[in-house]
Amino acid sequence: MAESSGIPESPTRRGVVAAAGGVGLAAVLTACGSGSSSHSSDDAAGSSSASPAPSGGAGSSSPAAGGGGGGTPLAKTSEIPVGGGKIFAAQKVVVTQPSSGQFKAFSAVCTHQGCTVAKVSDGQIICPCHGSAFHVADGSVAKGPATTALPAKNVTVSGDEVTLA
């Protein structure tokens, strides 16, 4: 291209765009690859009640389940209403108490377009962005446009404290 005049060639626009795209793609792949691969949105669509059970923590709420102590304390059990729940935005988790003494936890990130759910009301976890709703008992979709259940999170109850595992 240019003669060897000692002045470095300036990069072409195409080269700059290609390099930026490669960096962006690497960041996306890194972010996507570091998450859990066991929660495929296609797999969870029809089997939301089967998915949380094997994890052990989301459905396990007996005081004996709190054997470690290495988790993040979230709330006192009295702060989680029966038939409702509480959202912990900083941890991106919602903890519910479907029936007395039974505590569950789910991601607070809506599976429709990634908004954070805003409230728990009438047995449902509600997303403010497009109106999706999820059941407090198992995180399954109660109302679309979301088609995939909220992923279960592990919580333990020790005494009167709910801890994110």
Q: What is the 3D form?
A: globular
Classification by helices and strands: alpha+beta
**Tally of domains:** 1
Number of helices: 3
Please report which band the strand proportion falls in: under 5%, 5-15%, 15-25%, 25-35%, 35-45% or over 45%: 25-35%
Number of strands: 10
As laid out across the biggest beta sheet, the strand order is 5-6-7-8
Largest sheet: 4 strands, antiparallel
**Fraction of residues in H or I helices:** 10-25%
Rg (C-alpha, Å): 22 Å
CATH superfamily: Rieske [2Fe-2S] iron-sulphur domain
User: What would you say the CATH architecture is?
Assistant: 3-layer Sandwich
Low-confidence stretches: 20-68
The string of secondary-structure elements, in order, is HHHEEEEEEEEEE
CATH topology: Rieske Iron-sulfur Protein
- What's the level 1 CATH class? Mainly Beta
- What does the average pLDDT come to? 72
What is the end-to-end distance?
60 Å
Could you give a short description of this structure?
The chain has helices at residues 13-33, 41-44, 52-55; strands at residues 72-76, 84-88, 93-99, 102-107, 119-121, 124-126, 133-135, 141-143, 155-158, 161-164. With 165 residues, the protein is an alpha+beta fold.
Molecular structure report:
- The strands form 3 sheets. Strands 5-6-7-8 form a 4-stranded antiparallel beta sheet, with no helix packed on it. A 3-stranded antiparallel beta sheet has the order 1-10-9, with no helix packed on it. It has a 3-stranded antiparallel beta sheet with strand order 2-3-4, with no helix packed on it.
- The protein is α+β, with helices and mostly antiparallel strands and 165 residues long.
- The chain is 18% helix and 26% strand.
- The protein contains 3 helices and 10 strands, in the order αααββββββββββ.
- The protein has helices at 13-33, 41-44, 52-55; strands spanning 72-76, 84-88, 93-99, 102-107, 119-121, 124-126, 133-135, 141-143, 155-158, 161-164.
- Residues 20-68 have low confidence and may be disordered.
- A hairpin with a 2-residue loop joins strand 9 (155-158) and strand 10 (161-164).
- It has a single domain, classed as 3-layer Sandwich (Rieske Iron-sulfur Protein), CATH 2.102.10.10.
- The N and C termini lie far apart (60 Å).
